[in-house]
């Protein structure tokens, strides 16, 4: 539910329909989340004489405490499903993006000057080296949040989407190709 409430505002009714859970249970959890400062009512609408409250997360994301997470084998499959859902969301954003998102505003051979980014990287690293990179990545994302903190007030600002997936893989694709070639 928290992941959905990070995305956009929902009423208890909408969440009830989305999850197939009774409105009473959803409203109980909404009240608890609101009481503890995780969500807030962002606006209300009157529909057929009933005031609908739209709730949204106060944060753009969240990280659950380790002791709240299920056993590692369950978490592993949940993590895989979250990665797949995020990939589907990325696909949806790409398909729905305006044409201008794919039109270069500046002709350049330097990808750093392009108005979009799309890349895949494979590399070898120790777990410690990978964690150093992860830490730097989050520092860069914090810097992005700082740079763009008032952008929503600028009439010239546009919405952007970044999707990041970084995980250990079984084998690098180019290495598989090289190994097959070596066997010949």
UniProtKB/TrEMBL annotation:
InterPro entries: ArsR-like_HTH (IPR011991), WH-like_DNA-bd_sf (IPR036388), WH_DNA-bd_sf (IPR036390). Pfam families: HTH_24. This is Transcriptional regulator, ArsR. The keyword Transmembrane does not apply. SUPFAM superfamilies: Winged helix' DNA-binding domain. Keywords: DNA-binding. It comes from Bacillus mycoides. It comes from the Bacteria. One of its GO terms (molecular function) is DNA binding. Gene3D superfamilies: Winged helix-like DNA-binding domain superfamily/Winged helix DNA-binding domain (1.10.10.10). PANTHER family: SLL0088 PROTEIN (PTHR38600:SF2), TRANSCRIPTIONAL REGULATORY PROTEIN (PTHR38600).
């Amino acid at each position: 539910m928290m992941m959905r409430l990070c995305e956009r505002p929902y009423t208890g009714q909408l969440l009830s329909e989305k999850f197939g859970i009774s409105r009473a249970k959803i409203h109980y959890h909404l009240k608890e989340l609101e009481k503890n400062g995780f969500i807030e009512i962002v606006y209300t609408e009157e529909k057929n004489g009933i005031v609908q409250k739209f709730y949204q997360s106060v944060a753009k994301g969240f990280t659950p405490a380790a002791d709240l997470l299920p056993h590692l084998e369950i978490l592993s499959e949940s993590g895989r499903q979250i990665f797949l859902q995020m990939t589907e969301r990325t696909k949806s954003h790409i398909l729905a993006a305006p044409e201008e998102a794919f039109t270069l505003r500046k002709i350049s051979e330097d990808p750093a000057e392009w108005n979009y980014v799309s890349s895949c990287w494979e590399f070898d690293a120790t777990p410690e080296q990978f964690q150093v990179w992860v830490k730097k990545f989050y520092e860069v994302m914090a810097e992005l949040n700082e740079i763009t903190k008032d952008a929503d007030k600028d009439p010239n600002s546009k919405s952007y989407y970044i999707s990041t997936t970084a995980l250990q893989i079984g084998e690098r694709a180019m290495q598989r190709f090289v190994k097959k070639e070596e066997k010949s």
